Amino acid sequence: MTKLSQTFFGGFFQSGLEPQPRCIESPLLLGGAGSLGVDEAAMKNKPFHRRFGFAMYGIFAGLREESSVRQQALAALFVLAILIVRRPAAIWWALLIMNCGAVLAAELMNTALEHALDHLNPDIHPAIKIAKDCAAGAVLVLSFTALATFLAFLAATWPR
Q1: Under a CB-based contact definition with an 8 Å cutoff, are residues 142 and 108 in contact?
Q2: Rounded distance, CA 114 to CA 128, Å?
Q3: Taking a C-beta distance cutoff of 8 angstroms, is the pair 36, 29 a contact?
Q4: So where are the chain's domains?
Q5: Selecting from 1.10.275.10, 1.10.287.3610, 3.40.50.720, 1.10.10.60, what CATH number does the domain 66-160 have?
Q6: Vertex 59, ends 56 and 64: CA angle to 5°?
Q7: Secondary structure string (H, E, C) spanning the chain
Q8: Which CA distances in Å does 75 have to 23, 94, 135?
Q9: pLDDT of residue 37
């Protein structure tokens, strides 16, 4: 790994190297009786390159662990390829890329929520089920709006 990639990605992509959590007191989640294993002060006010590394690690973790994130990423690459081939007006580029970014961001948020909730309570709980279902529903709504935008693009730019 190059020094530049270590600087920007914080060395997360070396085999077996994970971010090391510290200790955070969480009175809301644990009633003040314990910690989550992350020092909140240690996570705040980091330089941009460290925060960028954390974000990249999260994106790659989502791609590695969730097939839905990989499927949406492939769909976004497909849309990008269609845009390159069709060469539409700039507004279509903006609309379609924003939709792809929104769907991918929603998938990552859904993945983060699922992992956090499963860690906090691995048992099936009705409130957790509703939270996870609502997050999945948000991804579905964004996916449908992205599909509708893509279909409108095809209809508006189809050769006549």
Answers
A1: no
A2: 9
A3: yes
A4: 1-58, 66-160
A5: 1.10.287.3610
A6: 120
A7: CCHHHHHHHCCCCCCCCCCCCCCCECHHHHCCCCECCCCHHHHCCCCHHHHHHHHHHHHHHHHHHCHHHHHHHHHHHHHHHHHHHHCCCHHHHHHHHHHHHHHHHHHHHHHHHHHHHHHHCCCCCHHHHHHHHHHHHHHHHHHHHHHHHHHHHHHHHCCC
A8: 39, 16, 20
A9: 55
Indicate the pTM of the whole model.
0.72
Amino acid identity at 69: V
Residue 41 has a pLDDT of 66
Whether residue 135 is predicted with pLDDT greater than 80 in this model: the reply is yes
Quick one: tokens of 17? Answer: 């190297």
d(CA 33, CA 72): 40
Residue type, 43: M
